[in-house]
Amino acid sequence: MRTDTRGLLYTLSAFVIWGLSPLFWKALLSVPAGQLLAHRIVWAALILGVLLTAQRRWGEARSALQSGRVVLTLLVTTALIGANWWIYVWAIVTERVLQASLGYYINPLVTVLLAMVFLGERLDRAQWGSLALAAAGVAVMIVRLGEFPWIALVLAVSFAFYGLLRKQVGAEAEVGLLVETGILTPVMIGYLVRADLAGNGALGHQGVLIDGLLVAAGAITAVPLLLFTHGARRLPLSAVGFLQYLAPTLQFLLAIFLFREPFTGSHFMAFACIWAALALFTWDLSRRAVFYRSR
User: Fold this and answer.
1) Dihedrals φ, ψ of 199, to 5°?
2) Scanning 15, 142, 144, 186, which has its CA 20 to 30 A from the CA of 264?
3) Is residue 167 within 8 Å of 117, Cβ to Cβ?
């Protein structure tokens, strides 16, 4: 029970941080989205490097890089997570938090679809029903709002593919993320240096508060992932499946009630389809968990 409680706290903390993260990025509206991404990657790499040094785990990173297949996979996941982070930050600073929340609502459904396509997993009627409802929600946004939710779809698809490929790599989350951020760090440092030389750099030019927040971007990136990794190991899959909706729900509430983004009747219809899909999906996930525990 003690371990379960700790796992619950870790996992809840991760999803709360992810859900409230728009507040953090909104405080950095004076910084271009590209620089926000660069600082996020550079400082996260530094934090992870210090962590692995303290844990004496650099051998794991070296072992992961000895396999050409692993290196190639991590190069692809690096591109996916980099694109996901950039689109997410850009969505927040351009007042599209509602679409970002939609992306993370439908992410589990996209993951199920990818498992069917690439892993040969068969979907039951409940899962097909969930996908149909989600598709209906996207169709409502296109037809009634005249808006293709590309931000939501890019976020959902990129993170689903990222999760699919990371499962193929025999490296712990911290090690894999260090490699991914490490690959991007030289490019990001070069980008930041160039911006600074051009007189557009934010770090050191917008005050101590902005400097502190830019450095903290690494923690906002690395810490919730570490909390989630350690928490999810201690919880049943059904519990994690239920808790994962906390982050997009918090983002949704921030978008509507704090950031005052438009939310019309058509928006409600679209989200209602997505919520119904997730309710069916979560019920099916819980039913499967109970079945396997009883065997």
Assistant:
1) 85, 15
2) 15
3) no
Integer-rounded Cα radius of gyration of the chain: 20
281 touches 109 (CB < 8 A): yes
Q: What gap in Å lies between CA 91 and CA 93, rounded to an integer?
A: 6
As a whole number, mean pLDDT of residues 181-194 equals 95
Number of domains in the chain: 1
HSE-up of 97 (CA within 13 Å, CB side)?
29
- Secondary structure (DSSP) of 68-107: HHHHHHHHHHHHHHHHHHHHHHHHHHTT-HHHHHHHHHHH
Domain that holds residue 250: 2-294
Residue 283 — pLDDT band, cuts 50, 70, 90? confident
- Continuous segment of H or E residues that includes residue 278: helix 265-294
| CA within 13 Å, CB half, 73 | 20
Structure tokens, 50: 């210090």
Per-residue model confidence (pLDDT) at position 66: 84
Q: What is the pLDDT of residue 104?
A: 93
Sign of CA dihedral 180, 183, 186, 191: negative
Mean pLDDT of 88-92: 95
The residues, any chain, with a CB within 8 Å of residue 42's CB and separated by 6 or more, are: 181, 185, 188, 189, 192, 218
Statement: residue 290 has pLDDT above 80: no
HSE on the CB side for 123, CA within 13 Å?
19
Q: What angle do CA 244, 247, 253 make, to 5 degrees?
A: 135
Determine the Cα angle at 223 with ends 218 and 229, to 5°: 135
